[in-house]
Amino acid sequence: MWTDQVTTAVQQILLGIIGLSSGVAVAGGLFSFIVELGVIADFADRTHTGDQILFYEDCVALGGMLGNLFFLFRPALSALFPIQTVLLVIFGLFAGVFTGCWAMGLAEILNVFPVFMRRTRIVRYITVLVVCTALGKGLGAWLFFYRGW
């Protein structure tokens, strides 16, 4: 009976170590991919704050870690109920900016948009296309989160 408990404890510890190691490897790969895309360096270049690039990279890694902790442990924010909506709006804004910048960085690397614009000959209407894409993404997100689809 006692050996069964020890065996179960050892199995749980090994599963924890394997899970943590796998998570670290995947997160490291994801963050190196984000850095390799040049999104962070591009923002630092455009804002003329290239001397702060290590700080930006640390913030991206910290955001990923905090996001995982919030996802795994789901802290109760009901104690912060008056501030909860404001925090949700701020998080949604940052998550949307992050996702959009990541997608645009990937598209920039692949040169998808310039080739698409030249082949379809819609260079004149690029502003309308970008605004319609943004409105479509916003409407889709609203339908998903508000309606629960």
Provide an overview of this structure.
With 149 residues, this protein is an all-alpha fold. It has a domain of 77 residues. It has 6 helices and no strands.
Topology, element by element:
Layout: H1 2-37, H2 39-46, H3 53-73, H4 81-110, H5 112-120, H6 126-147
Any low-confidence stretches, pLDDT <50, length ≥5?
none
Number of helices: 6
> Structural class, please?
mainly alpha
Beta-strand content: under 5%
Please provide a brief summary of the model.
The chain is mostly helical. 85% of the residues lie in helices and 0% in strands.
List key phrases describing it.
149 residues, mainly alpha, 6 helices, 85% helix
